[in-house]
Amino acid sequence: MDKIYSASSIKNRDEQYKTTILAIDDAKDILALLDSDLSAEGYRVLTAKSGSQGLEILSAEDIDLVLLDILMPEMSGPHVLRAIKQNKQSKIIPVIMLSASEQSQDIVSALDLGADDYVTKPYIPEVLFARIRTSLRHLEINRELEKMASIDFLTGINNRRQFYHLSNIALNKNIRDQSSLTFGLMDIDYFKNVNDTYGHDVGDLVLADFSKILSEHFRGYDIIGRIGGEEFCICLPDTNVSKGLQACERFRKAVSKNRMSLELDGRMVDLSIKVSIGITSTKQESNLELLIKQADKALYAAKNSGRNKVCEFK
Q1: Do 59 and 174 share a domain, yes or no?
Q2: What pLDDT, in 10s, does the model give residues 3-16?
Q3: Whole domain around residue 96: which residue ranges?
Q4: Is residue 1 in a domain?
Q5: Exactly one of 15, 230, 263, 289 is catalytic; which is it?
Q6: Do residue 63 and residue 138 come from a single domain?
Q7: What's the per-residue H, E or C state across the chain?
Q8: For 264-288, how does the pLDDT look when each residue is reduced to its tens digit (9 = 90+)?
Q9: Is residue 249 among the annotated active site residues?
Q10: This prediction's pTM
Q11: In this structure, is residue 189 part of a structural domain?
Q12: How many structural domains are present in the chain?
């Protein structure tokens, strides 16, 4: 099935836009008008002449807002709306319905299904633009709330819930692809001494600095997270245990070499920390709960044998 892109979006596809709007309507004249008006306002516009084509584009592109015709053949607007709102990846995207009648019961049904607003056709450009701006403001708020719910406020990396969520996705993919995945637990050695000696404010700085090193020493698609206190997790997709050991050992050495210089009570203090890491890799019929238990046993072995080590689950 072909994707339908507007002429303006093709011409400007290499440019950066703040907002991408997908317009779905079976009427070519409406699509052409929306493309012209919205492009003139500075939006990037993608168009689809059917619901199925719209959903295909939605799955392939980063869309910020959808304009959706209510009455379309084959796949109606409410049908498309339901698919958008039931998909975890797209449910947050605001949808404004396009209707030829203000009294249509279809509008009420669409709003009940999760549509953010509606505009009657023929539309008044200034009204449409205002409603788009309002919906985009709501989107920004929702995105910020989602970010707050998934990011650890102190370190800026994934919190416990988000880490486990993303790791489950990666694990399921690796199982389907029959490839290896390495999972690890890590604990800052003697972190309690830092809090007891210098106070919790310094302890927070140490955690933030540790997280920065963690982010810098693993790949962009590796999953890292703080699961509580001084405990952190890593999930390395498409990585066997040998490569996982090498990556964790490089990180352990980087932590050991790192120094923090802080001014405390008028004097400079140099702080350094160590980290113990326990790792495991996927076997047949692995699940996240099992990997956590195995990595935890490996972490215990690392601490029990002198700390500042990387140990593999045996």
Answers
A1: no
A2: 343 434 434 443 44
A3: 7-149
A4: no
A5: 230
A6: yes
A7: CCCCECHHHHHCCCCCCCCEEEEECCCHHHHHHHHHHHHHCCCEEEEECCHHHHHHHHHHCCCCEEEEECCCCCCCHHHHHHHHHHCCCCCCCCEEEEECCCCCHHHHHHHHHCCCEEEECCCCHHHHHHHHHHHHHHHHHHHHHHHHHHECCCCCCECHHHHHHHHHHHHHHHHHHCCCEEEEEEEECCHHHHHHHHCHHHHHHHHHHHHHHHHHCCCCCCEEEEEECCEEEEEEECCCHHHHHHHHHHHHHHHHHCCEEEEECCEEEEECCCEEEEEEECCCCCCHHHHHHHHHHHHHHHHHCCCCCEEECC
A8: 888 888 899 999 999 999 976 689 9
A9: no
A10: 0.61
A11: yes
A12: 2
